[in-house]
Amino acid sequence: MIRFTRRALCAALAAVATLGAASGSAWAQERTFKLALQNPKGHPLEIGASKFAELVAKKSGGRFKVNVFPGGTLGGDAPNVSALQGGTIDFVQLNSGILASQVKAFEVYDLPFLFANAAEADAVVDGPFGQKLHGMLAEKGIVGLAYVELGFRNLTNSKKPIKTVEDIAGLKLRVIPNAINIDWVKALGANPTPLAFPELYAALEQKAIDGQENPLSVILANKFFEVQKHLAVTNHQYNPQSLIMSKKVWDALAPADQKLIQDAAREASVFQRKVNRDKSADDLQELKQAGMQVTELSAAEQAKLRDKLKPVIDKHGAALGPVLGELQAELAKLRK
Fold first, then answer.
1. Over the stretch 296-328, which tens digit does the pLDDT of each residue have?
2. Phi, psi of 221, deg, nearest 5
3. HSE (CB half, 13 Å, CA atoms) of 205?
4. CA nearest 180: which of 297, 101, 242, 117?
5. Which residue in 281, 272, 97 sits closest to 181, CA to CA?
6. Which of 241, 203, 240, 208 has its CA nearest to residue 222?
7. pLDDT for 166-213, tens place per residue?
């Protein structure tokens, strides 16, 4: 007959209790998340979001599942962010500049001609500056996980080819709804029309607006070539995108699971940028084959475009205070 001392019996009962608690905790951490974004299935941003979902599932041993909702199916960016803060959407991927409605410093990412190339953008957003801005979102109920990219933006319209800066004047152009984008379009003599992205195709198709500006991948994936004839390669603005998470949801996770999600986000961001950049040249060729007439501004016209937009940069840079100076200091180090 096996005899237990009182001490041994207590130790055994404590071990069983600990195992049960651990098992219950693991069970509680099994869940399905929702991730919302505006671009459709097959776009590099959706490919990146799906990679993130794959990595989360793999790193969690299948405990976590991320369902990706592309194409604005859960609404526009503003309602998505609100739902994320409330905890009803878990992740959102959106233009970093849109987060200026939460933290004004994010406006800096919408300034025209900020980055000369993608390598500069990577160094800034992945470095202390980009991480500082993401950290500022915490008090707004948002966790900034990683930066992916939309890329450099270009102009399209249904009326005429853009060969000179003056050709832009008079066009009614959709812009992301914020002050910087409205001002730079006005500076070129065009008419800005703030509009949520899910409404854009219909507005172009119905001729409610003449044109829009987006990276090549967005123009192709959303089939804007069906309702826009002319594409001008201007590269006037670079858009980092932020993958963000609800702080309510984040705070409910165990520290190990928080790290798991953070690691998956950073790994997916590197993957997504490579996908986007590898596709860029092919995207331009596909748009040409789809019937778009492509023009590229000469070096002299590009210089004129920069000069036209400088007052907008000065105006909004001054309003941002030290933020623009911090970013420019980072760029100065890179350019030495």
1. 999 999 999 999 999 999 999 999 989 999 999
2. -65, -30
3. 9
4. 101
5. 97
6. 203
7. 999 999 999 988 899 999 999 999 999 999 888 999 999 999 999 999
Kindly give, in sequence order, each residue whose CB lies less than 8 Å from that of residue 186, ignoring residues fewer than 6 positions away: 192
The burial of 16, by beta-carbon neighbours within 10 Å (0-12 exposed, 13-18 middle, 19 or more buried), is given as exposed
Task: State the DSSP code for 253.
Answer: S
What fold does the segment set 154-237+282-335 form as a domain?
D-Maltodextrin-Binding Protein; domain 2 (3.40.190)
The residue among 137, 139, 138, 174 whose CA lies nearest residue 155 is: 174
> d(Cα 268, Cα 122) in Å, to the nearest integer?
14
Q: Check if CATH label 3.40.190.170 holds for domain 30-151+240-280.
A: yes
Strand, coil or helix: 212: strand
Closest CA to 36 of 78, 72, 87, 88: 72
- Residue 98: C-alpha distances to residues 84, 186, 325 (Å): 14, 19, 20
Where are the chain's structural domains?
A: 30-151+240-280, 154-237+282-335
3-state secondary structure of 28: helix
Q: Is pTM beyond 0.90 here? A: no
Length of the chain: 336
